[in-house]
Design goal:
Layout: H1 16-19, E1 25-30, H2 41-44, H3 54-84, E2 90-95, H4 107-124, E3 131-133, H5 145-161, E4 170-174, E5 177-182, H6 189-197, E6 205-209, H7 232-244, E7 248-251, E8 257-264, E9 267-273, H8 307-320, E10 324-330, E11 334-340, E12 345-351, E13 359-364
Helix pairs in contact: 4-5
Length: 365
């Protein structure tokens, strides 16, 4: 993608969080938020209808209404609950991409949208914690949005982390743990592998990406990190490398709560997806739609009408399923926390604006 940054931030670059972090700590976790507001003219006054196909115009206008409705009541309630549930040992807030809706078609407005949501997020957590975000597809959607987001992200993430950030793919240390943040919109295999390789010796390795690395049971299964067919070998090699490290992948994008544990002769990894896209009150629940590995692929497969799409889907599912030993899929929205210790990493999901856990996932045990 034109304009994608190719800079490198290695773990040796002023890891300010590492110096003050105890071995046990927590992270506040937010999935997609799609920040927007009513009236839609606040951020979409320059939205160019004439340059868009009619179907796309209808879809994106519907998203503006969905997001405005969410952010008029439900999402502020969700943020308040997240702040109320923030553990006393929390060290930062991690947002998993699609922080904003985008679609401003005006660079200054896109920057304002990002600044506005950043101020909102800092207020929600009383300015007590660094706020770290990974690039999502909506964060760079619209005329001039990619350049606006990259400029904003490099400055803002650098300030929040207390280190130089020159790319939307970078890494940082949190105590003894390594966090690699990957721009899935413009993935650079050499950079990602170089960052992962530089984390040797870390206690836990976290790979943060908006689009999941391990295929999801969704119609847009290829729309993921290194999901395109041209990246098949890159993806498989990276998964094998991460399994040897018992890595944890944190992702968003699919607007569901999704947990996978893969295990093979290479080792083991887990992938956890969460979402804050609270479209209606019914999304504030945590009853899984699937709970066993044999159910992986059964949601999307029957819905695909194209034989070519079905064949490709089953190929992708078949790449994962032989190594899938735990699986859970829940169509819900809410907030989450991570608890990190020497022996374990645990994700706790709170549906909607609940202060009571709905599901707990052992990412490392």
């Amino acid at each position: 993608m034109k304009g994608c940054a190719a800079g490198t931030l290695l773990l040796g670059c002023r890891p300010s969080l590492a110096a003050r972090t105890p071995r046990n700590y927590s992270v506040v976790l937010l999935g997609d938020t799609h920040y927007d507001t009513f009236p839609s003219s606040t951020y979409h006054a320059h939205y160019d209808n004439d340059r868009k196909a009619e179907w796309l115009w209808r879809v994106q206008r519907a998203e503006f209404m969905r997001n405005g409705d969410m952010w008029s009541d439900r999402c502020p309630r969700l943020l308040k609950a997240s702040a109320d549930c923030m553990p006393s040992d929390a060290r930062f807030v991690l947002q998993l991409g699609d922080l904003v809706q985008g679609d401003c078609d005006h660079q200054p407005t896109h920057k304002r949208m990002l600044d506005d949501v950043m101020q909102l997020m800092k207020r929600a957590y009383a300015g007590r914690l660094p706020f770290v975000a990974v690039e999502g597809n909506h964060d760079i959607r619209g005329d001039g949005a990619l350049e606006a987001y990259h400029e904003w992200s490099n400055v803002t993430m650098g300030r929040e982390l207390g280190q130089e950030v020159t790319s939307t793919t970078y890494s940082f240390r949190q105590g003894d743990d390594a966090w690699v943040v990957v721009d899935f919109n413009c993935p650079n295999p050499n950079l990602v592998n170089r960052l992962v390789d530089s984390t040797q010796g870390a206690r836990h390795l976290f790979l943060v990406t908006h689009g999941p690395l391990v295929f999801s049971d969704s119609g847009s299964f290829r729309w993921s990190l290194f999901g395109a067919p041209k990246y098949n070998e890159v993806r498989r090699a990276l998964i094998a490398k991460l399994m040897r490290r018992r890595a944890i992948i944190l992702a968003g994008h699919t607007h569901v709560i999704d947990f996978k544990r893969l295990r093979s002769s290479e080792g083991e990894l887990t992938q956890f997806i969460t979402s804050a896209v609270w479209t209606n009150e019914e999304m504030a629940f945590s009853k899984p739609a699937a709970t066993t590995p044999k159910e992986y692929g059964e949601s999307t497969g029957p819905q695909l009408t194209s034989e070519r799409a079905r064949d490709d889907f089953h190929t992708c599912i078949g790449e994962v399923k032989p190594n899938l030993v735990e699986y859970s899929l829940t169509r819900a929205a809410g907030h989450a926390t991570l608890s990190v210790t020497d022996a374990s990493v645990k994700a706790t999901f709170y549906p909607g604006d609940s202060r009571k856990p709905g599901q707990v996932f052992e990412l490392v045990s």
